[in-house]
Structures are given as C-alpha cells and as structure tokens.
Amino acid sequence: MAYLIEFLFGAVVGSFLNVCIGRIPTEESVVTPPSRCPNCRTPIAFYDNVPLVSYVLLRARCRSCSERISSRYFLVELLMGLMAVALYYRFGFGFEFIVGFTLVAALIVISFIDLDVRIVPDVISLPGIILGLIVSIVGYFLIGNRSSIVPSPLSSLIGILAGGGFLLVTAWIYEKITGVEGMGGGDIKLLAMIGAFLGWPSIPITLFFASLVGSVVGLACMMLTGAGRRLALPFAPFLCSGALLFIFFGEDLIRFYLPPG
Ligand SMILES: [Zn+2]
C-alpha cells in the first residue's frame, strides 16, 4: 500500500515536472496559466489531467484538436512514479527520501530539457548548487554522518569545486586543442550541482559512467545515422544517469574504489 501511495505521489509530481520541462526553456511561469495543449492552447480539464491514466484514455491525443501528445508526458510520470518507489525502498520515508526525490526531480527536468532544446537551464542548476550545500549542512545536524546519500558539508563543498573545476579545466584544454567548444557551460554547472548534493566521491563515478555510456550511445548513433564526428549528443542525460546510479549504489561503489582504512 505504501508503495502504491509513493508511486501515485511520484506520478503526480511527474505531471508537474512535464509542465516545467515545457515552460522553463521559454521562461514561462510554471504555475499560471493551468496546463494547456501545446498545440491548440485549449486548457486541459482536470479529468483529462490525471497522470498516466489520461494519456492512455485519450490515446495520446488532445481532446479538442486531436494533435498527438508527446510520449514524454507519459514517460516522465511513469519514471517519477518508479523513482519514488525505488527511493522509498532504498531509504524509507524521511530526510533522505525528500532529498533524493528533490534531486531526482531536478535531474529528470534537466535531462528532458537538454534532450528537447539542448540547454541545461541555469534556473535549476545554479539554485541546485546552493540547495545541495544547504542540504548537507542541515543533514549534518539532523542525521549526522550516518547517511549514504547526504554528504558532509565539506564533501559537498569539495564536490562543487571538483565537479565545476574539473570540467572547466577539461573544457578549456579541449577548446585550446581543437578550437571547438566541447562541453557546454551548462554541463559544468550541472556536475557542480551533482557534487553539491552527493559529495565529491560522486564526481568520478558520475563522470566515468556518463563518458562510458555517452561514448557507446554516441558511436551507436553515428553508425545508425551515418552522421560524422559533428554529431552533438546532449551530455546532461548521461551525467544525470550517472548521478542516479550513485544515489542508489553509491555506497557500494565508494567501498569498491575507496576501501576503508
Ligand atoms: Zn490541442
């Protein structure tokens, strides 16, 4: 029963995240006006705005103009529902759940905006850096050092510097050598945010995972589409996947590369 409630909670939040994904790039308010069809702008009635269910009942089409509704809406709601369940399973309900859920929500919004319009929005990543640091300080007083997801304030601070600094240097060298801008500034701020929330050990793991999976997917895309090296893949979704990996398995991964004692 608790899992069902978590799932529904996640799906409802996912429904709101869809609004954020659609509106943040155009700097619209995410609160007003209420949800509208992106095509005909007809307001969506409350009975057509039920997460997951409405998408299926309407067969992925707008009720008034019959334009196809992007599967992203269904996907984000499903993803957030499943994430809520997974976080609840891993951490129970408490401070760690709230922190994890907030971070996952931010990562999902960033990933889908990057997929959509190739931007990592500053309005999420910059406050996210500050919030991550605050969370580590609050967590230090609330649950001490017994948490596997909330880092110590020092680890959070080093995470910001390591995440931001490492990519900044890499991007600078890459640009010097190739003359092409490689990694966007948005990715750098995103990694700093991940470091702020998850502490510095999350940085090498996130980067390693993102580069590995990013290269494999990039190569696959090049072979499938025949596009050359110019193919620019959004990198944020890979960084976010790496961070997700760390949220759930970070403790085990750290033990693997930082043996105790
Ligand atoms: Zn419509």
Please give a structural write-up.
- It is globular and about 60 Å long.
- The chain has helices spanning 2-23, 53-57, 71-91, 95-117, 122-142, 153-178, 185-198, 202-225, 236-257.
- It contains nine helices and no strands.
- The protein has 261 residues and is mainly alpha-helical.
- Zinc ion is lined by residues 37, 39-40, 42, 62, 64-65, 67.
Identify the notable features of this structure and list them briefly.
binds zinc ion; about 260 residues
Architecture blueprint of SSEs:
Elements (H helix, E strand, L loop, with lengths): L1 H22 L29 H5 L13 H21 L3 H23 L4 H21 L10 H26 L6 H14 L3 H24 L10 H22 L4
Helix pairs in contact: 1-3, 1-4, 3-4, 4-5, 4-9, 5-6, 5-7, 6-7, 7-9, 8-9
The structure holds zinc ion.
Helix proportion of residues, in percent? 55-70%
User: What string gives the helices and strands in order?
Assistant: HHHHHHHHH
Could you tell me the number of beta strands?
0
Note the gap between the termini. Answer: 42 Å
- Global structural class: mainly alpha
The outline comes out as globular
- Quickly count the helices: 9
- Largest sheet, described in full? none
